[in-house]
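Pipeline run #58 for the internal structure catalog. This entry was flagged by the ingest filter as a single-chain record with no existing model, so it goes straight to prediction. Upstream metadata was stripped on purpose; only the residue string is passed forward. Reviewer on rotation: M.T. Logging verbosity set to normal.
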Amino acid sequence: MKMLSPVQTWPSFSRLIYETSLGIYENQLFIIVGFILIPVITFGIITFWLGDSRRFVDKLPFFKQYRLLTASASLSSLATLLASDTPIRESVEFLHERARGYGAYHLERMIEQIGHNTGKGNVGYALDTGLINAREITRLKRLSTDADLSRKLQNMSTTHSKQLVSSIQRIEKLMAILWPFIMYGTLLLFGGSIMMMALSIRF
């Protein structure tokens, strides 16, 4: 096309598409490195962004899924330890020693709240750090006794797992809807730019 008509004579839209494509081609190495680094950086942020500000982003995609995954795994492990007659504090400390980043942060807060006797021994108050769903925490706080606590925590773990699967399925459905629009939209952009360029050529 450049041989038939100089780029400077192409329609503005066609020049924009051409320059964008050329930029992608000339910087493809940086783009590939970027695509590799983005998941790594994202995982680092999700894993090691701690503190009260994390509560606000834990409702966003990927952050929410990571919270649900961490909560489910922690609750399941805690239930197993309690079922073996390990006291709640020792159980949480055991998990904390083997955790890192986001999970370790919440387990540490649980240990502190157990130590301060938050809720006067009620396990619901001890586990209320923002990791576990608020509805499940409310149910734990209403318990008058910790009898059969292991089974209750295992059920909570299952609930979080189901919510994780459901949220992932919603993302997959959304991507399935958006992907054709992105693909065909890109084809239309390139096809439209070529058509406009062809119509602008004067022989």
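catalog note: DSSP finds nine helices and no strands in the chain.
catalog note: The first helix runs from residue 12 to 26.
status: ready for reviewer M.T.
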